[in-house]
TrEMBL record:
Organism of this sequence: Paenibacillus piri
Lineage: Bacteria, Bacillati, Bacillota, Bacilli, Bacillales
Cofactor annotation comment: Binds 1 Mg(2+) ion per subunit. Binds 1 [4Fe-4S] cluster per subunit.
Keywords for the protein's UniProt record, in alphabetical order: 4Fe-4S, Glutamine amidotransferase, Glycosyltransferase, Iron, Iron-sulfur, Magnesium, Metal-binding, Purine biosynthesis, Transferase
Name the UniProt record assigns to this protein: Amidophosphoribosyltransferase
Active site as annotated: C37 (nucleophile)
Residue numbers binding Mg(2+): S320, D382, D383
EC number from the UniProt entry: 2.4.2.14
């Protein structure tokens, strides 16, 4: 291979200052799904900015490209946003300028379009009612058509964010009252979202009528907290209070120091994203009062019942598959071992790795423990297979370390359809399960055997009551049954973009 070709291929893997920096920065080495964003809110606490900082740290797994906090003291906004991890964006001096008792905060992972500061949230707008800040997690499936209509009516957009569409709808409302304007705007949008709106004297929280994206409320003394996951409450010493209900609108007024429970739409078909339980949420989080680690262990147990294989050890692909691997091992009696170790310090590397490491890029983040897997029949548990490239690399990694057999077990059904609700997924033609049979996938990833958890086994393992369609989950990525209207203009990506 010529040096010119090598250089061209190497440069194609970078779009920013860092290896793994910017949109599509995951460079093909790992084909894992990527979550969209995380939101955090505080109302009624004098250290709202500091609490938001620690809350965002707990939600860092939901977005690593930008972070922002906007606070108000009842008279105006103080805010800061920038590109990078939470610890890179904020320091003591910056947090010292963010004075106020109410805050909304955001971490972002860009799933479509350019990764740039203009799209970092919270987004700040000025309109006739004063300053307005918005942070969201999710994706609006009809944003493109609404934006087109608004532009024809004279609206000028400053970002490529779905969130700005909602801001324009609020600004164009005939209602001067911000609560009524927000309600009117939300009735015009479709999709999945957890919104935090902030004015100088109010904080408003809203969740889509299907409850597609997780959104929880907590308490810290007399203060109210809001977050994408309950783990953020633990980080600030708060406690979980309840989930924000689908279609619910919670209004917190600084002058009154109180919260009003309201609603902008009735609850529709409940459809919490199943992938939150399988992969995205942290194991120490609870969604709808169901602990993620416990649910994943049950998935592993069910996977063992559906697809037992005689082997010497069970190992999980770090980190999201560890819980399922423990469940599989407990059910079968096969010892669980740390056969794969994750290197946590390669995500933002200044140097470009060698061509050899680009070709075997999984070694940058995973290592097989040779003394554990050598000469062993290994059951490798993973949470999903997207394109199949990562699974192939990990199987080969285990074989190179001396594993005599590698049996792959996936704690979810085959991922066959793109997500339109805020998860970064490739086009259907790039999803290996949409193009190949299970036997063909097995051959493609070089496994001795392959089995996916059934949809029924998945839903039973999560444990929500069997009284709604799909037990109240969105399983469109598995069965092509989308809970909301999907148009040709629907963007596969995130409302942050």
């Amino acid at each position: 291979m010529s040096d010119e070709i090598k250089t061209s291929q190497a440069q194609a893997l970078w779009t920013g200052r860092f290896y793994n920096d910017g949109i599509n920065s995951h460079d093909g080495l790992f084909d894992k799904l990527r979550e969209e964003c995380g939101v955090f809110g505080v109302f009624g606490h004098p250290d709202a900015a500091s609490l938001s900082y620690y809350g965002l740290h707990a939600l860092q797994h939901r977005g690593q490209e930008s972070a922002g906090i906007c606070v108000t003291d009842g008279s105006g906004f103080n805010y800061h946003r920038d590109m990078g991890l939470v610890k890179e964006v904020f320091n003591n001096d910056i947090l010292g300028t963010l004075v106020g008792s109410s805050a909304i905060a955001h971490v972002r992972y860009s799933t479509a379009g350019e990764s740039k500061l203009a799209n970092a949230q919270p987004l700040i707008f000025k309109y006739r009612g004063g300053d307005l800040a918005i942070a969201t997690n999710g994706n609006l499936t009809n944003a493109a058509e609404i934006k087109h209509d608004l532009e024809r009516q004279g609206s000028i957009f400053q970002t490529t964010s779905d969130t700005e569409v909602v801001a324009h709808l609020i600004a164009r409302s005939q209602h001067d009252d911000i609560v009524l304007a927000v309600k009117e705007a939300l009735l015009k949008v479709d999709g999945a979202y957890a919104f935090l709106f902030q004015t100088k004297d109010k904080l408003i929280a809203a969740r889509d009528p299907h409850g597609l994206r997780p959104f929880v409320m907590g308490r810290l003394g007399n203060a109210y907290l809001f977050a994408s996951e309950t783990c953020a409450f633990d980080a600030v010493g708060g406690t979980y209070y309840r989930d924000v209900e689908p279609g619910e609108l919670l209004v917190l007024d600084i002058a009154r120091g109180s919260m009003t429970e309201d609603r902008f739409a009735p609850i529709q078909r409940r459809a919490i994203c199943a992938m939150e339980y399988i992969y995205f949420a942290r194991p120490d989080s609870d969604i709808d009062a169901i602990n993620i680690h416990s649910a994943r262990k049950r998935m592993g147990r069910q996977l063992a019942l559906e697809a037992f294989v005689d082997a010497d050890i069970v190992t999980g692909v770090p980190d999201s598959s560890i819980s399922a691997a423990i469940g599989y091992a407990e059910q079968t009696g096969i010892p669980y071992e740390l056969g794969l170790i994750k290197n946590r310090y390669t995500g933002r590397t200044f140097i470009q790795p060698s061509q050899e490491l680009r070709e075997q890029g999984v070694k940058m983040k995973l290592s097989a423990v040779r003394s554990i897997v050598a000469g062993k029949r290994v059951v490798m548990i993973d949470d999903s297979i997207v394109r199949g490239t990562t699974s192939l690399r990990i199987v080969n990694l285990l074989r190179e370390a001396g594993a005599t057999e590698v049996h792959v077990r996936i704690s979810s059904p085959p991922f066959m359809n793109p997500c339109y609700y805020g998860i970064d997924t490739p086009d259907r033609k790039e999803l290996i399960a949409a193009q190949k049979s299970i036997e063909e996938i097995r051959q493609a990833i070089n496994a001795d055997s392959l089995h996916f958890l059934s949809k029924e086994g998945l839903l039973g393992s999560i444990g929500r009551p069997n009284v709604e369609l799909n037990r109240g989950h969105c399983t469109a990525c598995f069965d092509n049954s989308y809970p909301t209207r999907i148009t040709e203009e629907s963007e596969v990506g995130c409302g942050c973009d």
